[in-house]
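G., the chain you wanted modeled:
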Amino acid sequence: GAGAADGHLAEMYQRYAQQSFGASLPLQPQQQQQQAAPLQPAPQAMQAMQAMQAMQRPPPPAAGAEVERAAEAAQSAELARAAGEAQRKMQQEREELRLEREALRKEREKLRREASLQKEMRAAALPEVPVKVAEPTDRPSDKEGRLPCRTGNKAVAAAAAEAVAAAEPNSDDQLWEVLKQSMKQKSSSSEPTVMLDLVTMWTPVWKALPATSFGRGPHTQHLGVLFGQRNASGILRLDGAELLPTAFVWEPPIIEGRGRTPSLLDQAAQLAASLESALRAFLAETFEPWAAQQAEASKADRNCVGWFLCNDGEAFALSKPLLELGSSGGEPWRRLVVVADRAKSSAEDPAVEVVKLGGSKPERLLFDLNSTPEEDSGAVQPE
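Predicted structure as tokens:
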């Protein structure tokens, strides 16, 4: 920088001398040397120029750039392949789930059809006929040896075989006539023995019951008495009911073992014994005195002919204390019970069964539901 400045001053001095005196002044030896030598940039300027050139030049490619790009391409391909495999697996699982749902739907439809068919068969059940069956049966029978209508094809075949053996037909036409007579005799007494009036018997009970808990929470059962009369045809019409204001509620106790943890069977046996003990105490202290009072008070205007039990998710189960209630005592109302499951019932369609107690085994009776109560002119006192 200093040399360039001196040279510049010398050049300006020469120009001034030429303009002023018409000749150039002699240069000093140092000035001549500076003028003769070419101008050289300063070291700081050289370094700055080199730094600027280095910044403008593109950086040299790295040695492993191709390897990195190849690795990235392979990783992308692997991710794409894994994503495609996961998508195919998800589609396969969806298809399997769809097939399982379809099979479950068909199974439910099959069960629904079977239940509907059983309901129709139950509604159109054949009446009781005197038959002789050598092998034992699990169905209850009365003292005359008659099997109920739900024994099915075995009772029909036995009755037809006895009729055919008695008639000794000599041709197919005679055999057909014997079978028709046997079936006509069987269908002549297919009327129910009990008639339940929905409007006067079930509807008041349904409105008085609390909302169902579907078997959750404490074990709860509701009891009451039934009123009705038997008409001239022998059909018992249940046209009234009275609900016990107090329900039976049982909370399972905590089972504690003596020095050891009781097994599941021991716990179940202890819980069953606790439930039966509490129910017996409730029947003896609360229900039976109340039911006797209702039966005594109703003699003037209506007849107490039975009692009813409302389960909550236990279907039509009758525990030992309830069976003992129907077998003990001399009151007629103890012998007939209507069991309802309010978890499966509604105001228009009750899930009920009519059971006759007092014998060696409980006997289910054939009944019908009536939604339009009628006045029975030929009513007689119940037995």
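The longest helix spans residues 65-123.

Shout if anything looks off.
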